[in-house]
């Protein structure tokens, strides 16, 4: 019996040591790899000081109207994500892709991600980067909230709005709830497990499936997207955006008045998989403007602009001419 207990104790100790070594090695691997990634992860646009932190904006194009592109929640690098779209827009209009704090090339901030703080930061960085209204605002997914709030706070600077499979404030407030990142998920990130999984092509392809495999994105930008995904997987700003979206939706709802400028709501058909609740709110999203229309875009998933950048660009350009 004593020998059995000693063997059991030795097995437990060796097992515990093995776990400590593996976790420690994983932590070091993640830290070293992150440090290496940061050396090559240089801004594609320019950085501007907003409340003592650097905020990134990528601009281009030509014309009298500036299209301002707001990415959805969890989109690690908006510069890459919107590339198929702004390439179509550039010959006709100016464009500005901004990175909220915690995304892309922007810093992480200590300020809470309430909707008015986010919107004020966007307004400030557009001014700092030399953008001039009128703006044509384009919001993807959760980016709808800051897009609408910007139009509420600065209506004289807005010419129109296009929503890219974006949830309405009514949807976010009434029919969905925040989801906190679990301890296990955070542990897998910190110990390098997620990074190791991303070495497999099948995992990378899986993460890109909702984005049409990044079909219209050049290989060098795909690499930037992969690096950004690993660097931005989990940070306080992205987590707080998720935590606050219901409260943020209520703020936007409380100030609801139909806009006088046009609104186009582009809705994905989710490759033929229907969601009655989502479709109901998308159809009702047009109540946010006196000049509104909805278009369901066939054979697309949530990232409509990765499937039909041509159609999305045409709908945006149609509003810039009104």
UniProtKB/TrEMBL annotation:
InterPro entries in UniProt: AB_hydrolase_1, AB_hydrolase_fold, AB_hydrolase_sf
Residues of the AB hydrolase-1 domain: 66-169
Repressor as UniProt keyword: no
Keywords: Hydrolase
Pfam family, one: Abhydrolase_1
UniProt superkingdom: Bacteria
PANTHER family from the UniProt entry: AB HYDROLASE SUPERFAMILY PROTEIN YCLE, MONOACYLGLYCEROL LIPASE
UniProt name for this protein: Pimeloyl-ACP methyl ester carboxylesterase
